[in-house]
Amino acid sequence: MIHAEAPSGLAPIPERDRLQALDALRGIALLGILLSNVSGFAGPLNELREGIDPALRGSDRVLSAFVYLVVRDKFWTLFALLFGMGFAVMLERARVAGRGFGAVYLRRSFGLLALGLVHAWLIWGGDILVTYALSAFALLALRSLSLDFWLKLGLTLYLGTIGYMLIIAAALTLPGVAEGDAADLAQAQALRAAEVAAYAHGDYAAVTAQRLEFFFDSTIAGWSMMLPLSLGLFLIGASLVRGGVIADPARHRWVLRALVVHGLPAGIVLTAISVAIDSAPSLALFSASSIFAQALHMLAGLPVALALVAAVVLLLHDGARWPRVFAPAGRMALSNYLSQSLIATWVLYHHGLNQWGRWSYTTLIVAALVLFAAQLAASAWWLRRFRFGPVEWLWRAFAYGRWPPLRVRGQG
């Protein structure tokens, strides 16, 4: 369990009480999410395929393969695990303080929902915050259940959703079960063309209308898969913290080593099988091979993410310093996530600098790395002066019902 002195009341967690491994992991996850989101910033969200783009050549193809094999489905999974870990930290801290938890976390979840809707409707359509907020309401309702129940339910939700995809893939191999046809492809092509027209040529009003259409037509439809996946990952992550694995790595070294030794090879094998089945699975036409490949690729995300969590926790416990470089960005993960979308859409969309379609994939990846390096430096600078990122500060003020101190003592 997490041990801390009992404070006088619920408030944001002081820096000295934070689990630095979680901040470092959030920063690492933020980089992976940015690299994964590059194609969604610079291309339509209603894409016809995912995976390794067969039309790319040279460094573009190499980087496309790297992102799909190493990053895609691994780092949003990591971020979801970390969300659940943060929940468990807050819950234990409230228990130690002897204060109620539900009202604060409920306001926190409503605050995240509001931020997510602003992001999805007004900034970028590929938002994940709304999904996380909705899953957080369910997470709160399960807070009083046992650690064993959390872990079993989390695995059931996650693996059950993947299993459902595999059942669909198997059903599509049966005689008489129809796969996608020309009408499905034509509809997908029309949606894609409308999105490209809005982002490449439209003003802000046209882009906003396109984002709203995508949210109500595609994002909500995707919740049937994403909500159980997210909640399952939240519960798995929360179980690691509640069981003491993160806070006491010396005692649980064997668990952490097992996650690395078994998780990384399992993720590599599943990813390899997925790519062998279909390296560019269709998102427009339902087929047994494309769904099977997508399901296995998604399944690979969990063991890799768990291996990364375990590796960073062990490295920090053994004295490694390099993961700490990511911690400031992780402490400001929400501010950095939103600013990535603001900057990318302003640079690429027609109502901004109008660079849509003008940058190669290599240029986009390099730009993303430069942006993240700037965020690392800016986060470190900011946190030497302020206790929270700007969005985190507003979010906490809403959750706790009062303005928490922002400036670091001695900084004015």
UniProtKB/TrEMBL annotation:
Pfam (any one): DUF418
DUF418 domain segment(s): 240-401
Keywords annotated in UniProt: Membrane, Transmembrane, Transmembrane helix
Transmembrane segments: 65-91, 103-122, 128-145, 157-178, 220-242, 254-277, 297-317, 329-349, 361-383
Matches recorded under PANTHER family: INNER MEMBRANE PROTEIN
The name this protein goes by in its record: Transport protein
